[in-house]
Amino acid sequence: MARFSDKVAIVTGSSNGIGRAAAVLLASEGAKVTITGRDSERLEETRQAVLKAGVAESHVNSVVADITSADGQDLLISSTLEKFGKIDILINNAGANIPDANGKTRTEGGIDTFLKMFQLNLQSVVEMTQKVRPHLAKTRGEIVNVSSIAAGPAAQPQGPYYSSAKAALDQYSRSAAIDLISEGIRINVVQPGFVETGFSTVARGLNAEESANFYSSMGAQPHCIPAGFCAKPEHIASVIAFLADRKASEYIVGQTITADGGSTLVLGFHAHFARKAPKN
Ligand code: NDP
Q: Could you read off the pLDDT of 170-206 as tens digits, one per residue?
């Protein structure tokens, strides 16, 4: 029997990147999935990717919604219940480093941007957790939150609001995990490093070619990514699936699993050793 047979999952931010890969993986291993995002065309691409993986059309529920709106959150939950009858797994993956309208990205970024960043990367997760809680209590379900290595402890001067929101998400997840485990609900976190997705087109305003160049140049620098390459979305999806699979990870509660090819274990001085010695 496939490991997610009889399970129903909601994967937020599944119109692209990590969420799309997670939705394809869960569905191809038996789950009924609700996929969602604001962009209907990209969401349809995800639906097609799920079907291409051999999943029955009746196992996919596409919902166009803004995860930061109460109506969007309610629609996601009600349509999942209507179509599949229950909820076993919530993957809170939607997130972004939202650019400032004035092009400011560092500590001078506007408070509007700060608020938007927290609304998407933290508040929507808190709200979805509250709303899905009674349904997950019935199924003894799982929540996996997608954070980032930007959460720290290393400083992130190029994105202080995004990284602060992710740091808050990590601490919220730990606290909620201990609060809700008594109801049988298990919460864990994945912290990806560099992953080739649409993230850098949003966060850094790069086009597709610039984005591909950025990821390959980061991957080529061992003092940035010791593994020697940027992750594909599937590398993170497999960690999400592990944490969403109670049989595989039942005794992991409130933990943050870092999947970053070793990036966070490299300190500045390691760069000295990562370079070849200069020729005299
Ligand atoms: P993508 O930009 O490829 O995907 C982001 C997803 O989030 C899209 O499906 C997008 O859908 C959705 N989303 C964004 N804002 C909203 C919103 N307001 N309402 C509903 N959906 C929304 O990026 P990734 O796949 O990389 O990002 C997934 C997660 O991984 C994020 O939480 C990100 O912070 C995290 N992460 C990514 C890293 C990377 O290097 N890629 C590194 C560390 C963490 P749509 O645009 O259709 O609304």
A: 999 999 999 999 999 999 999 999 999 988 876 667 8
C-alpha 273 – ligand 1 centre gap (Å): 34
**ipTM for the whole complex:** 0.99
Q: Is the CB of 206 under 6 A from ligand 1?
A: no
Q: What is the pLDDT of residue 208?
A: 84
The CATH code of domain 8-197+232-262 reads 3.40.50.720
Ligand 1 neighbourhood includes 80 CB (under 6 angstroms): no
Q: Tell me the pLDDT tens digit for each residue of 225-249.
A: 999 999 999 999 999 999 999 999 9
Ligand 1 mean position to 95 CA, how many Å? 4
Structure tokens at 97: 């480093």
What's the CA gap between 139 and 128, in Å, rounded? 16
CB of 95 closer than 6 angstroms to any ligand 1 atom: yes
15 in Cβ contact with 35 (< 8 Å): yes
Catalytic residues: 162
**CA 169, CA 164: separation in Å to the nearest integer?**
9
Domain ranges of the chain: 8-197+232-262
